[in-house]
Amino acid sequence: MADKSEVWGEIVRKHNLQPNSFDRVASWQFADAIFSLFFDNITSTIKARRAGFHDCIDTEEMFREFFAGLRADRIIP
After folding, report:
1. Distance CA 13, CA 28 (A)
2. What pLDDT sits at residue 41?
């Protein structure tokens, strides 16, 4: 993504977004690490539940709300 800063600038101008710099939009090093994994990241919540953490979050709903907030704040189109 190192060469995409200009593309982000065009998107910001086109959609009248907040003037956040490209390196503040995401952790590109983290994204690179996650998308480079050669195995699925599967984790169990059993230990957490046994320790008393019983709440759960609907992942799809959480992402919808998160991205809706970013759109409302004009961070993403």
Report:
1. 21
2. 66
Q: Model-level pTM?
A: 0.68
Cα-Cα-Cα-Cα dihedral sign, residues 49, 52, 54, 59: negative
Helix (H, G, I), strand (E, B) or coil at 68: helix
Residue 29 main-chain phi, psi, to 5 deg = -65, -40
Residues 6 or more apart whose Cβ sits within 8 Å of residue 32: 1
C-alpha distances (whole Å) from 33 to each of 24, 30, 56, 68, 69 are: 17, 5, 26, 26, 26
Other CB atoms closer than 10 Å to residue 9's CB: what's the count? Answer: 13
Q: pLDDT tens digits, residue range 20-56?
A: 988 888 888 888 888 887 766 677 889 889 999 998 8
pLDDT digits (tens, 9 = 90+) for 63-75: 999 999 999 999 9
